Amino acid sequence: MSGIDRPILIHYGSFEATFLKRMCHRYGAPPQDSAAAKAIASSINLLSIIYAQVYFPTYSNGLKEIARFLGFEWTNPSSSGLQSVVWRHEWEASGDPVVREKLIAYNADDCAALNVVVHTLRRIFQPEFSATKSLGSELEIVHEESLGKNIPTKWPAFKSPLPDLEHINRAARWNYQRDRVFVRSGVTKKKKKPIRKATSSKLIETPQKVSLLVAPTSCPECGDQEGIKGRLLSRTVHDLVFGRDSVKRRFVKYIAQTYRCRSCGHEYGLHEPHFHGYKWGLNVRAYFIYHIVGLQVPQLTMRHSLNKLFGFNLTSVTLHDFKVVASKLYLGTKKKILERIVNGTLVHADETRANIKGHQAYVWVLTNMREAVYILAESREGEIIQCLLRDFHGVLVSDFYTGYSAIACPQQKCLVHLMRDLNAEILDNPFDEEMKSIVVGFADLLRPIVDTIDRRGLKRYFLRKHLVEVDRFYRFLGTSDFSSEAAVKCKKRFEKNRDTLFTFLSYDGVPWNNNNAEHAIKAFAGLRDVVSGSTTKAGLNDYLTLLSVAQTCKYRGLDFLDFLRSGETDMDAFARCRRDTEHRKEFRPARVRSSPRSWEQT
């Protein structure tokens, strides 16, 4: 190297630099003015330049993969790092010059391959270099700043070369099924509320409002209706008053008359949701929970919004307490939702990842057509879902995760998942006619079933006629002798899952896809993006409890904000109260205005 002006040592990886430093420490470094010392001091690790800067279309950043992609080939096709170690031991043991020459040729090829990579990087970083040097074929180079946003999504748009598959996919949309299919299956559609006409009367703003809280007519513990008047409780809090078209800040004084049961001595009429908020009223807390869970607004954004719009002085600690108290209040509601789902006849199940302070966890969702519940788990083990559904005897709708297979109940696998997998196979194997024949046969089988569901709903009486077509499709698979790998694999999958692919044809009200659970998973996915792994395990459990209540309200057609404001924890009681209120409004007699004076007196 002494004959080279400013020698630079170029190596790939940190092995050479570490080895040379160890040699200098063990045997002494070369003189500082020598070419060797200058080369070691100015050494360049080429891998550090490539890493996170240049992405070659290879499976790794190994020198051999990159160099082979660039067109370089080693003299000995079996050359590798492991083989070089074997050659070294053979030469040390036998002294065979042939083995020695293989080892020297391998190292020389490594240097030549490194030279090819160096010249390629110069062409990338120095365009003028490629103009003066002829280095073979031109590379296709794409600069990162020229690429648009490529945000991965779990729910990409479905496209298929087969029109039947696209027609089937459109019929699996969540809103489409609820608005059209389940109406025909016997589920009544919610009536639209009549639009109120705006009145010209002005609301008189008052600096303070008094609200009287009505105590229960009987003891909630024993049911005895004879109670003795107890304490008269009152509390003035910062609260929000909801008008017909407005939300205003007010100082509200809540007054509650308590009673003590003669039989059991239990004191009732305390109205815990109203008196356990310190200086903040129930409507403020409900408004906050509705936004962070129902609308998925970040807590910091809600703190700025509440303080700016209503003049509050809320802190992050206070808002965190709002969430914790609300979660404890509705924990019993979540347990009742889970019990009703497990004791029902239909369950949709799915799972997704969660992030707890950088640690991976999983969230399981169980839903039916009226309720949804979220369960946090540390892993994706099948024992978790098996424990949750050990007493379930209805039909389980899920994807093809093997953890569901051990649950002892009839199961329906999501045919949309299967359809997407089959569509991906024919896109990956466009010239495989055997694979295409299976997919076309499955599409011909499923499309008339979907059309029947669209016309008649999910009723066994109208769907069982398609069992003959299912048997015909499986006879086609059994008598066909496929040779392509993709077709054989697809055939085995159909035969393995035969008892779980068309279960819905033999039951009433069982969907053929798992979009109901996926819709619930999307709700958590939006919340997960807002939280972004910043919450603890307890905090995420609080979110899941409130999200279970929010999604159940959505499935049942109830207003989540109204449910939070009511202070009620029993969703059935709240629904009955809403129906009774709407019934009274519908049959309320109209007022007759006889004269201006009598109207004012009224």
Average pLDDT metric: 82
Strand order of the largest sheet: 9-8-7-10-11
> Which descriptor suits the 3D outline?
extended
Number of strands: 11
Question: Could you describe the largest sheet, including whether it forms a barrel?
Answer: 5 strands, mixed
Strand content: 5-15%
Fraction of residues in helices?
40-55%
The assigned structural class equals alpha/beta
Low-confidence stretches: 197-208, 592-602
- Evaluate the radius of gyration: 35 Å
How large is the count of helical segments?
A: 26
| Terminal residue distance | 110 Å
Model description:
- The N and C termini lie far apart (110 Å).
- The longest helix has 29 residues, at 97-125.
- This protein is extended.
- With 602 residues, the protein is of the alpha/beta class.
- The strands form three sheets. The chain has a five-stranded mixed beta sheet.
- Helices cover 50% and strands 13% of the residues.
- A hairpin with a 5-residue loop joins β5 (247-261) and β6.
- Residues 197-208 and 592-602 have low confidence and may be disordered.
